[in-house]
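Aim 2 progress update. The chain analyzed this quarter is reproduced below.
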Amino acid sequence: MRSEVLEEMPEAIMEYFCEQVLKRDWPNCIHAYYFIKNAFQWMRKNSASSYKLYYISNDVENGTFIGILSRPEEEYPDVVVTYTCPGNEEQFRRMLFSTEYINWQKKPLFQAIPFRMKAIVETMIEEKGLKSKLYSNAVLKWMPADVAARLDYEIPEDVFIDQLGVDHIDFIYSLWSHSDVYPKSDLWDTVRLNIGLGVFNRHNGELLAWAMCGSYGGLSTLIVQPDYRGRGFGKLIVLAVTKVMGENGVSPHALINEKNKVSLGLFKNVGYVKHSTPLPYVVVEDPDTSGP
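Predicted structure tokens:
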């Protein structure tokens, strides 16, 4: 019988775990760091989604962590965020093998796995009799909070920037390319509980472009309506959300598909720094039983 080594993380431990343990590996830990911070914030505000955060209580210094984000839409996978401090990969492997907290039958999405841990996750999926599939390789871009807070920009006279509202969610979701793994409730929580800004036509109020601080605490859901691309609205809304995040003490970061050259160039132009190692997104699937 396997013994469960993980325990649910109490909020009293969160600050020490993030600031004193994870930050030793900054900014490599930035995704896990803000996932945890955002989780406690959303749990206090009764989000539609639910978080479970697990750590090894008798060895907190190694930074081993599993976070699970479950959404009310049952047909969508759980999102799993994993991390361990460098050098602890073998302990992480043993923990991943023994834990009962991951619901493998829900075909979870492992989000932004540190590359040094990717093979461990893929091997574990195979040992569960399932198949792993690369959803995307993400490029991490980030900026220190104090730098973000000092950003400045000009707003063209024909548009204005304002908060997104829940009445915008259906339209935003209809244009979101990741609606296959992220449900509408993610946007609902994000708009209500985090930062969500849009560029609006000053004459008729039409929403032209938008970006948010999403469920993992990073900049996400950047979209410019097709008819309004090439006019600088993407850069404008990234600057606006980035600055607000910095003013709130958050170091903005974004996970961008390595094939999305337009977004990668935009974030570089705004001043984001590129992380050198890709962060894979891996989805769990049923094994192929169709035969040759």
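The chain is about 30% helix and 25% strand. Residues 11 and 86 are 24 Å apart (CA to CA). These observations will guide the mutagenesis experiments scheduled for the next reporting period.
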